[in-house]
Specification:
Number of helices: 15
Distance between the termini: 48 Å
CATH class of the largest domain: Alpha Beta
Largest sheet: 8 strands, mixed
CATH architecture of the largest domain: 2-Layer Sandwich
Number of strands: 16
CATH superfamily of the largest domain: Bira Bifunctional Protein, Domain 2
Radius of gyration: 28 Å
Oligomer: single chain
Number of domains: 2
Length: about 425
């Protein structure tokens, strides 16, 4: 028997209201802050991610779904959302628009990871990118949007972590200091971190394995090794967050997992939860990415938020969400002639915006009325032999239990009024 591929899941009708709720609120906040929707292809040239994310990252090294198409192009299913938006920004000349260009998106992302709670090989993301401005006030505004979006969903007991990881001017000296700290500790480091020490030392701070976590606490801090420009940027960000009354905690070990980040990085996590797969949202500044992809030097900042993790936390915190309204009307009938009348009534009700349903399998009247009760319908219309003879219907109020006989021609008008 076929099953969903490992690391993927079906979003069944009972979970759809969560995703609809999240998408609705995300679209509302994106519009509120001036972000316009964009959609990029589900697959891209693999080189886009190798150049942007970085060859030494786990995404490129281990996790991308890569394939050759029939035209011998090497493509990758989208593992993250920022690089494709930056590619679109360059390709469609958005640098000629008023800056910053604010874009938001919903996307399916694909990574070959070990499945566990909060981590899937296909997941859904709400993201936003603000491209073309280096002002730390933009960083604060973006964080303000994602914070208000998440708290607006009803999630509480969350914490915002921030850090600065510097820029190409100050980071090399910091990385050298970081490597020197780790050089005599390789005997207690995990295998991945031994590789990172040479290839990507900043990722040493992102390791969640117990053998390495103790080393991270004593490691040199990026925020204490910033150049004057980066230090001023970080101080200004904190000033603006205070002004916006956004609570934050400085986390000097926060680095994020992609090579393109510079200066500001941030994550929002449930309070009192730790581990690699607890972040609800995260992002940062990537001032060099547009240039790496062939554009002019262009500062930018963005974030991504995993929708599955949001659903997980909404359930954990027992947040009540809006649920789809049941049909207003259920039409029950007896016999083939009444069935035709029932279909006509449903048609007319739907044309007038009244949600309705009927049984289509010629069940007994008792079974249909039982189905009507389970459907949650407010009213049930009954068409039996007597109703056919008189050209009427019986309208039953399901909550109060009373019923009345009405002309078949006036039922739509009366229900619209009700």
């Amino acid at each position: 028997m076929y099953k969903a591929p490992r690391g993927t899941s079906d979003i069944l009708p009972e979970d759809q209201p969560y995703f609809i709720y999240i998408q609705d609120r995300a679209a509302y906040y994106a519009q509120l802050y001036g972000y316009k929707p964009i959609e990029t292809p589900v697959f891209e040239d693999v080189g886009l991610f190798i150049r942007s994310v970085g060859e030494e990252t786990d995404i490129v090294d281990k996790e991308m779904y890569v394939f050759d198409d029939k035209g011998n192009s090497t493509l990758a299913l989208k593992p993250e959302g920022t690089a494709p938006v930056c590619r679109a920004y360059i390709e469609h000349g958005m640098q000629n628009l008023v800056q910053p260009v604010k874009l938001s998106y919903f996307a399916s992302l694909f990574r070959y990871e070990r499945p566990q709670a909060g981590r899937f090989r296909q997941h859904h993301q709400f993201g936003a990118e603000a491209i073309g401005d280096s002002d730390p006030a933009l960083d604060a505004e973006l964080i303000d949007m994602i914070w208000n979006f998440i708290t607006g969903l009803g999630l509480t007991s969350i914490v915002l972590y921030i850090n600065s990881i510097g820029c190409p001017q100050c980071r090399p000296a910091y990385l050298e200091k970081l490597k020197n700290y780790y050089l005599d500790k390789t005997d207690v480091m995990c295998g991945d971190c031994k590789t990172r020490l040479d290839k990507n030392p900043l990722r040493l701070l992102d390791c969640k394995k117990e053998s390495c976590s103790a080393l991270v606490d004593q490691a040199p801090k990026s925020s204490q090794n910033l150049c004057p420009e980066c230090a001023d940027h970080y101080d200004s960000l904190k000033t603006y967050l205070n002004l916006l009354a956004i609570p934050y905690t400085e986390n000097p070990t926060l680095v994020r997992g992609l090579d393109y980040y510079t200066k500001t990085v941030f994550e929002i996590q449930p309070r009192d939860e730790t581990g690699a797969q607890v972040a609800i949202a995260g992002g940062g500044r990537y001032d060099g990415l547009i240039e790496i992809l062939g554009g002019k030097p262009t500062p930018a900042i963005g974030f991504g938020s995993g929708m599955e993790r949001m659903v997980l936390n909404l359930k954990k915190q027992s947040v009540a969400i809006p649920t789809p309204a049941p049909p207003k009307v259920f039409v029950a009938y007896l016999g083939s002639q009444a069935k035709q009348k029932a279909m006509g009534i449903c048609r007319d009700l739907r044309k007038n915006g009244i949600a309705s349903m009927q049984s289509l399998s010629d069940k007994s009247m008792k079974a249909q009325l039982k189905q009507a009760g389970k459907s949650g319908a407010t009213y049930t219309i009954i068409i039996g032999e007597d109703e056919l003879k008189t050209g009427s219907v019986t309208l039953r109020d399901m909550s109060e239990g009373n019923q009345q006989s009405l002309s078949i021609n006036e039922i739509v008008t009366i229900l619209k009024h009700k």
